[in-house]
Structures are given as C-alpha cells and as structure tokens.
C-alpha cells in the first residue's frame, strides 16, 4: 500500500502569454479551478497507476475542501485520514505560459497543520511505501520519516519544492526523487560540490545509500541504484502544461515499486506518466491511468 503524507489543495490556474515580471500586469481570458497539491497529485497518480493508496493531510472547513478531495475520491484514494483544521484549505496560484512552463505561489494554509502524529495513528504495515514531498513542515516530515522507517516502511521522498535535508534524514530515505534544481540544492546542503544534477544525484545515492532519481524534463529520467546508472526516456509529446509532471512521475514510480516491479520498469512507468501529464491542462486533471501508461509504453 502507498501512504502519502503530504499536501492537498485547490489550484487556480491562468493561461497567460508570458509569466509577469515584477511590477508587470498581464491580462488573460479567465481561470479554471482544479484539485492540486503535490501530495494529492501523487496520491492520484499512484491510485490511477493501480496501487491501493491513502493520504494523510489537512483541509480547512471552507468551500475549497470538497473540491480538494474530489478527484482523489474518484480515483479511489482513501481520504479518511485527512483532518479538518482551523485554517483555510491550501490554494495554489498558477500561471502557465505559451511554452507550457509555469510559475506557482502556494498559500499553504491547512497543509501547515499536518502533524507526524497523524501518521503515527495510521496502521502502517511492513513493506508499505510512505511517499512525502516538501509542502508541509520539515519538522513533521522528518518525524514521520523516522516513525515510518521504524515500522519497516519504504520511504520515497520527492524533495519538491527544493530545500536542504539533514544527513540523518537522507540516511533514512530509500528513494530520493528530485528535478535538476532540487538535486543541486540537496547536494549543496549535504556538502557535495557538483554542478551537474545527474552527478549530484549519483553522489547523494552513493553517500547516503538510497536510490537517487533525477527527472530531466524532455530528456527523461536518470536513476542511480547501488552504484549503477539506469535511464528512461520521456515520451515524445507536445506539452500544453507541465504542472504536476513531476508528481505524475513520482506517483507512478512509487506504484510500480509497490506492485513489485523492478527499478528500471518503475523509472520507465514514471517517465511515461510524467510525459502524458504534460499533454493535458491542470494538475490532477492531467494524470494518466495505468491503461494509458501501458498503451503509451507499448507504442513507444
Ligand atoms: O506540483 C504541482 C503542484 O504544486 C500544483 O498542483 C500546486 O498545487 C503546487 O502545490
């Protein structure tokens, strides 16, 4: 089973000609609202990729809460461990430009109230995968990792958005998932002098004994495990919105591990899921199903 310990919320998305510079105002036609949050996106990805999935998190008592949970419910994610708290449901303000690149501001609200005790109250079994990101407090993530590890869970940590991790925590992580920027931030904080994200991820993997996975956008993904380099290509797609591509990768990657598939297959399934997510607008609205991943890999 996959247990996501992480964020959830609602994305307010605008499509703009270009992302505004400081002091600039950009007009656009309108906006759309979709469920988002890196934790929730990854939960949807894992569930759509065929794994039993639950999410532990927090929501407000406001009009956004139901929308934030709606797609997870449809995808079969167990949202019962999401607690109501006295803060607003998280809202992310997202602008997407004509090149499908985005800029995001996350108003965290309820996500900041998520506590490691919520995971401690959950009935974790040995071999479960606990999947984390960096949109809740570091202190709670770190306590959750220590608890999950003591219960025999596998820790998959997507260090997004980027931030430093203590070495003590890096040693507990089984699978570290980063993009190019995140790889360099984690490496630098750990005293690793690399300027190339793939090399930085190799050194992290070697030094801390985890699998190190770096997503490279259109170049696919490189994964380091036990000193060996593995790679999977991205699908050849025309991107319309790259939001949640990394989440789609991470959820499908974790699902493949949960289903007992090997590291290399997990990379390939994650890469296909991330690529497909770029072909549709929005976060959870863009995440593919297991059948879509299978089809895309058959045709590639
Ligand atoms: O990774 C994409 C997600 O980041 C969006 O859904 C938004 O909610 C932000 O948290």
TrEMBL record:
Modes of activity regulation: Activated by a monovalent cation that binds near, but not in, the active site. The most likely occupant of the site in vivo is potassium. Ion binding induces a conformational change that may alter substrate affinity.
Region (Disordered) location: 277-300
Listed InterPro entries: Carboh/pur_kinase_PfkB_CS, PfkB_dom, Ribo/fructo_kinase, Ribokinase, Ribokinase-like
Active-site residues, as the UniProt record annotates them: 247
Alphabetized GO MF terms: ATP binding; metal ion binding; ribokinase activity
GO annotation, biological process: D-ribose catabolic process
Residues binding ATP, per UniProt: 179, 215-220, 246-247
Gene Ontology CC terms, in alphabetical order: cytosol
Involved pathway(s): Carbohydrate metabolism; D-ribose degradation; D-ribose 5-phosphate from beta-D-ribopyranose: step 2/2
Keywords on record: ATP-binding, Carbohydrate metabolism, Cytoplasm, Kinase, Magnesium, Metal-binding, Nucleotide-binding, Potassium, Transferase
Localization annotation: Cytoplasm
EC number of the protein: 2.7.1.15
Reaction it catalyzes: D-ribose + ATP = D-ribose 5-phosphate + ADP + H(+)
Binding residues for K(+): 241, 243, 277, 280, 282, 286
Cofactor: Mg(2+)
Entries under SUPFAM superfamilies matching the protein: Ribokinase-like
Entry superkingdom: Bacteria
Basic and acidic residues composition bias: residue spans: 291-300
Segments forming domain Carbohydrate kinase PfkB: 2-289
Subunit structure: Homodimer.
Family: Belongs to the carbohydrate kinase PfkB family. Ribokinase subfamily. Belongs to the carbohydrate kinase pfkB family.
HAMAP family: Ribokinase (MF_01987)
Function, as annotated: Catalyzes the phosphorylation of ribose at O-5 in a reaction requiring ATP and magnesium. The resulting D-ribose-5-phosphate can then be used either for sythesis of nucleotides, histidine, and tryptophan, or as a component of the pentose phosphate pathway.
Name this polypeptide is given: Ribokinase
Record organism: Labrys okinawensis
The encoding gene: rbsK
């Amino acid at each position: 089973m996959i247990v996501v310990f992480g964020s959830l919320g609602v994305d307010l998305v605008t499509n703009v000609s270009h992302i505004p510079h400081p002091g600039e105002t950009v007009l656009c036609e309108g906006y759309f609202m979709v469920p988002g949050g890196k934790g929730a996106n990854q939960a949807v990805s894992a569930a759509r990729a065929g794994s039993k999935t639950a999410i532990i998190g927090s929501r407000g008592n406001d009009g956004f809460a139901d929308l934030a949970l709606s797609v997870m419910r449809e995808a079969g994610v167990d949202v019962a461990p999401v607690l109501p708290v006295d803060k607003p449901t998280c809202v992310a303000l997202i602008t997407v430009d004509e090149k499908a690149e985005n800029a995001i501001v996350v108003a965290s609200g309820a996500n900041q109230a998520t506590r490691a005790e919520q995971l401690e109250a959950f009935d974790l079994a040995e071999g479960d995968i606990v999947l984390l990101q960096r949109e809740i407090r570091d202190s709670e993530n770190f306590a959750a990792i220590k608890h999950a590890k003591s219960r025999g869970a596998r820790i998959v940590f997507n260090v997004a958005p980027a931030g430093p991790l203590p070495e003590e925590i890096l040693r507990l992580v089984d699978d570290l998932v980063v993009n190019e920027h995140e790889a360099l931030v984690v490496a630098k904080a750990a005293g690793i002098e690399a300027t190339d994200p793939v090399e930085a991820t190799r050194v992290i993997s070697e030094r801390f004994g985890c699998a190190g996975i770096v997503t490279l956008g259109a170049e696919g993904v490189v994964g380091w495990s036990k000193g060996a380099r593995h790679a999977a290509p991205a699908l050849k797609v025309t991107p319309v919105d790259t939001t949640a591509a990394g989440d789609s990768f991470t959820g499908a990657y974790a699902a493949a591990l949960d289903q007992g598939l090997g590291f290399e297959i997990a990379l390939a399934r994650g890469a296909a899921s991330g690529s497909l997510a770029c072909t549709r607008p929005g976060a959870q609205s863009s995440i593919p199903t297991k059948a879509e991943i299978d089809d895309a890999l058959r045709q590639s």
